[in-house]
Amino acid sequence: MADLSEVPLGDLMKELQRRLECTNKPKKHLILIGPPGCGKGTQSPIIKNEHCLCHLATGDMLRAAVAAQTKLGVEAKKAMEAGALVSDEIVVGLIKEALERPECSRGFILDGFPRTLEQARKLDNMLNSKGAGIDAVLDFDVPDSLLVERVTGRWIHPASGRSYHSRFAPPKVPGRDDVTGEPLVQRKDDNADTLKNRLKAFHAQTKPVIDYYRSKVVKLEAERAPEAVSKQIREALSKIKHLDD
């Protein structure tokens, strides 16, 4: 158990108040779907904090399971070392395990899964076995032309993860991090040709998933300013009644 003796009383009281408020939050199981540069990374922390949800990014979950050498992590490592894809069963198993964690007691935001129709069906089967289900699918809709502009203009400070954009959020000094002054870099896949191929694959894969969840899909005008997108999300989630409530 963590030693709380050095934590200021005010911080402890704030955390206690937050946890008490969370117990009254309706449960929500959400899926976020959107192409690279759509704004999911901006909105996820906001949704997580406002609704007391855990954020499940399947790529991060796999890496953590492999590092911790859990049963599923060992299976995933074997697949990766053999050059094979990690099975859907392993990923769904990781999500199932996450549901038992205290931070996921009010529900989750699922990011990066499901990507295919078969994955969506397996996810639903697992949730149904636990008496749960997906409450809403937030579809971050942005024109491809705008995504190309967003992504190709991104610059990253590798050490901290701080991101900039040559047009929308430029650094104070071109090519330099605002805090450290160190050089910024572009990711290898942040170029127009690579992005267009990724978008083509994204649309082909996710259309069946969106069709599958059609009655639960909330299409967001995600090309708008972040504050406007947040407002759309709040309005949509305020209307959701969870299956368990």
Notes on the structure:
The protein is α/β, with parallel strands linked by helices and 245 residues long. It has a domain at 27-142 and 216-237: Rossmann fold, CATH 3.40.50. Helix content is 47%, strand content 13%. It contains nine helices and seven strands. It has helices spanning 9-23, 40-51, 58-68, 71-81, 88-98, 117-129, 144-152, 192-212, 226-237; strands at 28-33, 54-57, 107-111, 136-141, 154-156, 163-165, 217-221. The strands form two sheets. Strands 2-3-1-4-7 form a five-stranded parallel sheet. It has a two-stranded antiparallel ribbon with strand order 5-6. β5 (154-156) and β6 form a beta hairpin. α5 (88-98) runs parallel beside α6 (117-129) and α7 (144-152) crosses α8. The two termini are 32 Å apart. The model has no long low-confidence stretch (mean pLDDT 88). It catalyses: AMP + ATP = 2 ADP.
* Helix and strand run: HEHEHHHEHEHEEHEH
Biggest β-sheet strands, sense, barrel: 5 strands, parallel
Mean pLDDT: 88
- Taking strands numbered 1, 2, ... along the chain, how are they ordered across the largest sheet? 2-3-1-4-7
Q: Roughly what percent helix?
A: 40-55%
Oligomer type: single chain
Q: What is the strand tally?
A: 7
CATH topology tier name of the domain at 27-142 and 216-237 = Rossmann fold
In DSSP terms (H or I, runs of 4 or more residues), the helix count works out at: 9
| Rg for CA atoms | 20 Å
Which class best fits the helix and strand makeup?
A: alpha/beta
Give the N-to-C terminal Cα separation. 32 Å
- Per the principal axes of the C-alpha atoms, what is the gross shape? globular
